[in-house]
């Protein structure tokens, strides 16, 4: 009788404990709007159960708000050791950092999650967190949360309806130099509606309720059947299946166009230099010498651009650093000399009179070759590791990556290339407009030979357009539906820029054969 009463007491006690727990979880479900400053593991589990129930009953906007709060709850969870919590659609892993943090690997599926030193085979999501995430002796909790809901997230184009959240308690992590990596399986799009789409790693912005690509790159390793994402910050991430801006066949064609065009340009630019050297005594025009300097800059650019991918594949980093430095320098020199072409044109067409400058060519050369050198030296001093192997993606949404030697710092790349060329492009575009206006004014009232003059004026405008580097500006207008045609036009015109300069040089020399050059070295035939 006593033993029966004992079992009855145990049974009743167990029931009361379960009722207490269910009541606790029910309370957490009802007060999801209030994020506690500290919560124990049972409380975190109850929060996860509440959010899990919302995936079954609530709309997506309500779920998003709860997921954002759940992240803070997991960060505020008090624990003494690493803990995992699995509640149907949600998988959480809270890693308790102790001592010196050397990085972390997390492997997770719907049934299990672990943070062993190496990735576990046959798991859905694999995450690598770099050593940079925590400073020495920091003991913040590292939170991993995986949510899988094809019903709610699938219509948003999210791969397998799965999002991955990463966070560090009491810390905002942005701008990581050594990026976090996480991967998900994707052999090929399984749905017919996704057959023509590509994976894109993106993060969710809770302020705008939208996905963005900033700070994330995508690599689709088809032979391994996985998508690898690299991001420089922590938040919730997902792999979206999106329509690629350019197809793989277009990428391959553009690669061949670039290779052939740059090779032809290099060949004809060398011929241009040889022709100039053999007939140097006859050419005293300063404009011709400016063209030659631009040609040398383009030769350097093509010489270091063409083998960049092959050098990046070498095991030694020394050759890659050399190519990266010279490639950046020659690109800046090309932009600078196109700006000098515009400045020289300004003297000829706008100022016209009193344009003599003592040691004019020497001063131009100091700017054209010295200014890029100063930029490269300053960058090397500030961040000596910025010149290295980099992974470039022809499209932000495409998994095919290209490894070459160039700048690894996106901010420096943006300022020194896009920023500099933007200024040059605006100035030279204005000079092209001035040129066309002057040509029109010169032809006003001239009736004889109108067709011939119109043809020559057209050739003049096209030649000056090439010398001023206006064709590089096509990249600014390659967006939306213009992306693929714009890239084709950009690759064709700019890879063949050296060939066009050769034609301009040839026509220039042909026209001036019978001309008598002036005695002043700054005299220019126009």
TrEMBL record:
> From which residue to which does the signal peptide run?
1-20
One Pfam family in the UniProt entry = GPS
Q: Where in the cell is it found?
A: Membrane
What keywords would UniProt list here?
Disulfide bond, Membrane, Signal, Transmembrane, Transmembrane helix
Domain G-protein coupled receptors family 2 profile, chain residue ranges per copy? 254-509
- Residues folding into a coiled coil are none
Name any GO cellular component annotation.
plasma membrane
TM ranges: 253-276, 288-306, 326-349, 361-382, 414-436, 457-480, 486-507
Specify the protein's topology with respect to the membrane. Multi-pass membrane protein
Task: Provide the GAIN-B domain boundaries.
Answer: 104-247
Output the Gene Ontology terms for molecular function: G protein-coupled receptor activity
The source's superkingdom equals: Eukaryota
The reply to whether Glycoprotein figures as a keyword in the UniProt entry is: no
Q: Which GO terms describe its biological process?
A: adenylate cyclase-activating G protein-coupled receptor signaling pathway; cell surface receptor signaling pathway
Q: Does Membrane appear among the keywords?
A: yes
The name this protein carries in UniProt is Uncharacterized protein
């Amino acid at each position: 009788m006593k033993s029966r009463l004992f079992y009855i007491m145990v049974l009743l006690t167990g029931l009361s404990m379960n009722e207490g727990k269910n009541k606790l979880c029910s309370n957490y479900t009802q007060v999801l709007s209030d994020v506690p400053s500290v919560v124990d593991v049972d409380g975190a589990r109850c929060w996860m159960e509440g959010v899990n129930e919302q995936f079954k009953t609530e709309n997506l906007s309500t779920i998003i708000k709860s997921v954002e709060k759940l992240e803070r709850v997991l960060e505020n969870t008090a624990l003494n050791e690493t803990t995992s919590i699995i509640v149907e659609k949600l998988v959480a892993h809270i890693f308790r950092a102790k001592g010196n943090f050397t990085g972390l690997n997390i492997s997770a599926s719907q049934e299990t999650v672990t943070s062993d030193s190496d990735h576990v085979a046959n798991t859905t999501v694999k995450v690598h967190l770099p050593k940079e995430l925590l400073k020495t002796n920091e003991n913040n909790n590292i939170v991993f949360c995986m949510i899988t809901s094809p019903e709610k997230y699938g219509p948003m184009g999210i791969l397998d309806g799965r999002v991955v959240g990463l966070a560090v308690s009491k810390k905002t992590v942005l701008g990581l130099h050594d990026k976090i990596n996480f991967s998900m399986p994707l052999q090929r799009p399984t749905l017919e509606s996704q057959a023509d789409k590509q994976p894109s790693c993106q993060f969710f912005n809770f302020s705008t309720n939208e996905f963005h690509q900033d700070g994330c790159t995508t690599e689709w390793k088809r032979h391994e059947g996985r998508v690898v994402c690299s991001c420089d910050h922590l938040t919730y991430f997902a792999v979206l299946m999106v329509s690629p801006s350019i197809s793989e066949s277009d990428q391959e064609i553009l690669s061949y166009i670039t290779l052939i065009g740059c090779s032809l340009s290099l060949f004809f630019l060398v011929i241009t230099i040889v022709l100039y050297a053999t007939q140097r005594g006859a050419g005293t025009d300063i404009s011709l010498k400016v063209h030659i300097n631009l040609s040398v800059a383009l030769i350097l650019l093509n010489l270091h651009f063409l083998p960049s991918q092959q050098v990046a594949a070498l095991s030694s980093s020394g050759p890659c650093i050399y190519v990266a430095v010279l490639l950046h320098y020659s690109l800046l020199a090309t932009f600078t000399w196109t700006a000098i072409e515009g400045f020289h044109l300004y003297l000829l067409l706008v100022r016209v009179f009193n344009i003599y400058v003592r040691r004019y060519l020497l001063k131009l050369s100091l700017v054209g070759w010295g200014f890029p050198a100063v930029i490269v030296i300053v960058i090397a001093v500030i961040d000596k590791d910025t010149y290295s192997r980099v992974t470039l993606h022809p499209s932000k949404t495409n998994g095919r990556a290209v490894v070459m030697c160039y700048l690894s710092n996106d901010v420096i790349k943006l300022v020194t290339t896009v920023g500099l060329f933007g200024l040059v492009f605006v100035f030279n575009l204005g000079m092209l407009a001035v040129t066309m206006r002057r040509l029109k004014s010169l032809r006003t009232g001239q009736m004889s030979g109108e067709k011939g003059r119109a043809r020559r004026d057209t050739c003049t405008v096209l030649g000056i357009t090439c010398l001023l580097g206006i064709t590089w500006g096509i990249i600014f207008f390659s967006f939306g539906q213009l992306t693929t045609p714009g890239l084709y036009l950009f690759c064709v015109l700019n890879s063949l820029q050296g060939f066009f300069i050769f034609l301009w040089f040839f026509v220039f020399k042909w026209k001036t054969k019978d001309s008598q050059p002036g005695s002043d070295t700054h005299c220019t035939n126009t």
